């Protein structure tokens, strides 16, 4: 399944489709137009993928990767999926091994379960890839607190699975109100369990560092996002410290602060919280200072407001 970069909000429930909390934007070259050209090509590639035009999607990824910039991890992976689904085994492996080379911390426990890549399994290169990722996993996790990591992975699974099922039901069987309600009830039950678990972890350990649990600590942020205002404000200092230690992307802190301000009926600083206007278009909830919002967003690794709104209104 394609690992999308966007965050999808449904009834104020966060669905995170990207596996990495620290997935960085591409490192662009010196040409001023490189950023916009790369982003445009990736957007076209993603759009073609979603329309199941995999060959055209792969072509757009190829053009983006030929610009001489360092592609984002997720773009290389999505490009590999598109190539595999279009029957281009060579490009698929080139992109997967490019991610291995460019991102030494990347490995995956679930790559073998990704149906987009099934056509690659009979190749000898697939075994080499899987062996490489497994060796990397064993080395990186050699000093992990495996019990805590497994606990966080279980929290992540309980948080995400019913949400994906809920979205799939809304998309494929919107008339089945009983099934929709079943998924909502499961989400609510799992959220209650997860909140107890996460509060216990934060109270005992603080923010679990990536040195002991890897990216499994992202489950903490997933759960906190749909807790109470009081819980978010209580643990926000721990999230600030995690961001300062490069354990969490600063954009997530911006989202948490904006959400708290919105719930407190105060203006937001970074413009991450959107509402629908009378025309059904997403617009920012009240901004603290529209003239400074882009400056503040840049400090939190967020794109300009105009670009963010264009992206969110394309969904």
General description of the model:
By secondary structure, the chain is mainly α. A two-stranded antiparallel ribbon has the order 1-2. The protein has a two-stranded antiparallel ribbon with strand order 3-4. Strand 3 and strand 4 form a beta hairpin. Helix 4 packs parallel to helix 5.
Mean pLDDT: 88
Q: Tell me the span between the first and last alpha carbons.
A: 18 Å
Strand order of the largest sheet: 1-2
Strand content: under 5%
Principal-axes shape call? globular
Instruction: Give me the count of strands.
Output: 4
Helix content: 55-70%
What's the tally of helices?
13
Task: Note poorly predicted spans.
Answer: 4-23
Radius of gyration, rounded? 20 Å
**Run of helices and strands:** EEHHHHHHHHHHHEEHH
Largest sheet: 2 strands, antiparallel
Structural class of the secondary structure composition? mainly alpha
Q: Report the oligomer.
A: single chain
């Amino acid at each position: 399944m394609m690992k999308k970069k966007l965050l999808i909000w449904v009834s104020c429930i966060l669905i995170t489709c990207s596996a990495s909390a620290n997935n960085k934007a591409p490192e662009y070259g010196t040409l001023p137009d490189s950023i916009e050209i790369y982003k445009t090509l990736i957007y076209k590639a993603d759009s073609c993928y979603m329309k199941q035009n995999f060959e055209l999607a792969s072509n757009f990824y190829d053009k983006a990767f030929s610009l001489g910039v360092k592609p984002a991890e997720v773009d290389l992976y999505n490009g590999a999926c598109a190539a595999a689904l279009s029957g281009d085994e060579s490009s698929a492996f080139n992109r997967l091994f490019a991610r291995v080379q460019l991102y030494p911390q990347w490995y995956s426990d679930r790559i073998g379960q990704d149906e987009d890549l099934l056509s690659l399994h009979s190749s000898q290169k697939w075994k080499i890839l899987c062996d490489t990722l497994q060796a990397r996993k064993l080395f990186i996790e050699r000093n992990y607190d495996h019990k805590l990591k497994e606990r966080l992975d279980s929290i992540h699974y309980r948080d995400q699975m019913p949400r994906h099922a809920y979205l799939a039901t809304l998309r494929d069987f919107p008339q089945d109100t009983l099934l929709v309600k079943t998924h909502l009830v499961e989400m609510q039950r799992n959220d209650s369990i997860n909140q107890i678990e996460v509060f216990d972890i934060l109270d005992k350990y603080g923010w679990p560092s990536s040195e002991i649990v890897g990216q499994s600590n992202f489950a903490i942020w997933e759960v906190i996002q749909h807790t109470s205002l009081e819980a978010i404000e209580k643990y926000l200092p721990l999230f600030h410290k995690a961001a300062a230690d490069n354990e969490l992307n600063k954009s997530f802190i911006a989202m948490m602060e904006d959400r708290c301000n919105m719930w407190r009926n105060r203006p937001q600083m970074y413009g991450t919280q959107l509402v629908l206007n009378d025309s059904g278009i997403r617009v920012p909830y009240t901004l603290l200072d529209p003239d400074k919002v882009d400056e503040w967003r840049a400090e939190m690794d967020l794109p300009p407001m105009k670009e963010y709104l264009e992206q969110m209104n394309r969904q």
